[in-house]
Design goal:
This protein has 182 residues and is of the alpha+beta class. The chain has 4 helices and 5 strands. It is rod-shaped and about 130 Å long. The N and C termini lie far apart (93 Å).
């Protein structure tokens, strides 16, 4: 019986050793290996960024230059009432200078565009006149240095008589973009 006790004690000793010494060491090694793998991946990503640093710098400079170009398309910030009055006077001058009668001008509520730090000012202009003059006004609106978005352009021909074939009336909705106050 004593031999069986010795064998059982040895077996118990081996199991306790495995449970409290070998398994914790094994778990600790797996944790270290996982941490090392994670650090290796971070290092690889960092090295990739460092290797591409010149390309990233060039891209950033290109984007900055492009942003500066786009900034010139927007109107500088000023008092909203002053801005709307100036644009309305300009529109009246453009339409009347091309022999188009402005029947009505109506401004919509300014719409802030937060991600671009802009405010969109929409205006609807009702007009009447000759279709050829309307084409000239459309060309003038599209050729401006500042971006004027023609969001709607509706017109119809009036009285289809041969002597009035070119008579038209309609309305155009334009959007002006002004920078927000800094």
């Amino acid at each position: 019986m004593e031999m069986k006790h010795k064998q059982l004690l040895w077996l118990l000793f081996i199991l306790i050793t495995i449970k409290f010494i070998i398994l914790p060491v094994y778990d600790w090694q797996n944790t270290i290996i996982s941490d090392n793998n994670a650090n290796y991946l971070r290092l690889a990503k960092s090295n990739l960024v460092i290797e591409q640093l010149e390309q990233v710098k060039a891209s950033v400079n290109t984007m900055r230059a492009r942003k500066m170009e786009l900034e010139t398309l927007f109107f500088e910030h000023k008092n909203p009432n002053t801005f709307q009055l100036e644009q309305q006077q300009w529109l009246e001058k453009i339409f009347e200078g091309n022999n188009l009668e402005v029947r009505n001008i109506g401004w919509s509520v300014p719409l802030p565009i937060q991600e671009w730090q802009l405010v969109q000012y929409g205006v609807q202009v009702s007009f009447s006149g000759n279709i050829i003059n309307l084409i000239k006004v459309e060309e003038l609106l599209e050729s401006q240095e500042k971006w004027i978005d023609v969001s709607q352009f509706n017109f119809r021909f009036n009285k289809k008589r041969p002597e009035r074939l070119q008579a038209t009336s309609g309305r155009v909705t334009l959007n002006f973009y002004m920078r927000e106050a800094q």
